[in-house]
Design goal:
This protein is an alpha/beta fold. It has helices at 2-42, 56-66, 76-80, 123-126, 152-167, 172-196, and strands at residues 47-53, 92-99, 106-115, 138-145, 222-227.
């Protein structure tokens, strides 16, 4: 019995250090994970989204170049890290960083999703981009060719129908975000008109809508750019 007791005691004394080491390792791992998560959260950049529609691949690249006019002043290492513009096929993606005055620190990031040509079937690719928490942070840009003004009406019609087909099939949470965006832009319109007319923006003045204005609001901030 004493020999068996000794063997058991010996076995236990042999396992305890490894169990203790494993427990310490798990604690250290948890501490490092917590620290890394904290650092990542601290470095999370403010982010906006742009959905760039139309214009074709080359015109989209030219337009995106105009959004970064200070690129020539950036340090060489920043230029070498400039992200490529992948917009040749279907839904593409690139991004642009907003730097401080010295071009050293990144202040914010603009994520840019591109769809160079109109195809109704691509709606299923765009719809997942419009989640409730990013609808307010997304700007839709329709890019038109200045050299082909006769095509503007048709292109605008196609893209607006494309977007309305997407917004009409969003889930309830997304539709709530869309409605909030519409109300927000209506308030901005009233405030802007009040300032232009010299009336204090806090005054509750109802300005009549122009013909066709807000008849069928899209629910997404929209900008039309004629480029070329």
């Amino acid at each position: 019995m004493s020999a068996a007791g000794f063997r058991t005691q010996s076995r236990v004394s042999h396992l305890n250090p490894s169990q203790h080491s494993q427990s310490n390792g798990e604690k250290e791992k948890n501490i490092w994970s917590s620290l890394l998560d904290s650092v990542a959260a601290g470095k999370k950049l403010p982010e906006k989204n742009m959905l760039l529609l139309g214009g074709g691949p080359e015109m989209q690249k030219e337009f995106l170049e105009t959004l970064d006019p200070d690129s020539s002043r950036r340090p060489q290492d920043r230029k070498s890290k400039k992200p490529p513009i992948a917009n040749e096929f279907a839904l593409g993606y690139t991004y642009q960083d907003v730097l401080d005055a010295d071009h050293d620190d990144i202040l914010a990031r603009l994520s840019i999703f591109t769809l160079p040509e109109y195809t109704a079937a691509f709606a299923s690719l765009v719809k997942p981009l419009l989640s409730p928490h990013v609808i307010r942070e997304t700007l839709v840009v329709i890019l038109l060719n200045w050299a082909e003004p006769w095509s503007w009406v048709r292109q605008l019609r196609d893209w607006i129908r494309f977007l309305k087909g997407i917004t009409s099939t969003l889930d309830e949470q997304c539709k709530v975000a869309v409605e909030e965006t519409i109300k927000d832009w209506q308030q901005r319109r009233k405030g802007g008109l009040a300032l232009d007319s010299g009336v204090a923006s806090t005054s509750n003045v109802n300005v009549p809508l122009s013909q066709g204005e807000w008849d069928e609001p899209l629910g997404l901030p929209l900008c039309v750019v004629c480029h070329g």
